[in-house]
Specification:
alpha/beta; 2-enoyl-CoA Hydratase, Chain A, domain 1; 2 domains; 7-stranded mixed beta sheet; two-stranded antiparallel sheet; binds zinc ion; ligase
């Protein structure tokens, strides 16, 4: 231990009455290593202003960036925690508690409803920071709840995915979330409502292998990793060198897996446009045009 930094510096700073400088004012871009001032990073929605790298963001930020002011977060039903009483190096129950405390949420998905540029929508967002956004019973429950809410509100369902796949600590229970989420999103489609998937980095494993590939529209953020198994596993299995950019958003767009790759700054506007194309002003229903009541006269201010 260095006594100067441990003891002397804090003392000097106290004497001088100087406030400690927070060490999180600058962030380093993991792609280009440039330093970015935190306010610039917030302004750019956590996209590097130097190289355009889209950094991973929290589920709550997704919701804020996507929905208009005044949205409401939904309380999610509790799923049975630790159904197998699983233990590896540590108990799953302990890992779960730790993740809950760190992320300030019960499981890896946030659900909210509100509007996107005035279009009603239900949004579910994965939190990659919560055990790698892995899909266990809690996440399955969240997707089912979001789908039911979309049907109830006659609103499109938009899911932002960021997941390492199934939550292995829940064994077969986590695998069951795959058909469960597929059925839930099918419900949305049967109600004639758009189901839009926005894939963020990374979207892999059981999430890719279930509802995430079944959207009406597939959007991804630039350079997002999207796939089922990891590239190294595939390379070892097929014994062939994989093409450059394999499993990246742009490659998948070229090969027809995605419909759009959209910059985070344009995501809200793009979603609003897609929703309006899919929902608004259907010529068969001319009465719909008058659906929105005229704005009431301005309140006496
Ligand atoms: Zn950068």
């Amino acid at each position: 231990m260095n006594w100067i930094s441990e003891w002397a510096l804090p003392k000097i700073q106290t004497w001088l009455g100087r406030k400690e400088v927070p060490d999180n004012l600058w962030h380093q871009c993991p792609a280009c290593n440039q330093m970015i001032f935190h306010k610039d990073l917030e302004r750019s929605l956590h996209v590097c202003p130097h190289c355009g790298h889209h950094m991973r963001i929290a589920a709550s930020q997704r919701i804020e960036y996507t929905l208009d002011e005044g949205f409401q977060r939904i309380e999610l039903p509790r799923a049975p925690a630790d159904p197998l009483r699983f233990r590896d190096q540590r108990r799953y129950a302990d890992r779960l508690k730790e993740a809950q405390a760190k992320a300030g949420m019960d499981d890896a998905v946030v659900v909210a409803h509100g509007a996107i540029d005035g279009h009603r929508a239900v949004v579910a967002a994965f939190e990659f920071g919560f055990m790698g956004g892995s899909m266990g019973a809690g996440v399955g429950e969240a997707i089912v709840t979001a789908a039911k809410l979309a049907v109830l509100q006659d609103a499109p369902l938009i899911v932002f995915t960021a997941s390492g796949g199934a939550r292995m600590q829940e064994g077969a229970v986590s695998l069951m979330q795959m058909p469960r989420t597929v059925i839930a999103t099918q419900m949305v489609k049967e109600a004639g409502l758009p189901f839009i998937v926005v894939m963020a980095d990374p979207t892999t494993g059981g999430v890719t292998a279930s509802f995430a590939m079944l959207g009406d529209i597939h959007i991804a953020e630039p350079n997002a990793l999207i796939g089922f198994a990891g590239a190294r596993v595939i390379e070892q299995t097929v014994r062939e060198k994989l093409p450059e950019g394999f499993q990246r958003a742009e490659y998948l767009l070229e090969h027809g897996i995605l419909d759009m790759v959209v910059h985070r700054g344009e995501m809200r506007a793009s979603l609003a446009r897609v929703i309006s194309l899919l929902r608004d002003k259907r010529p068969a229903e001319p009465a719909e045009a008058a659906e929105e009541p005229a704005a009431p006269p301005a309140a006496n201010a």
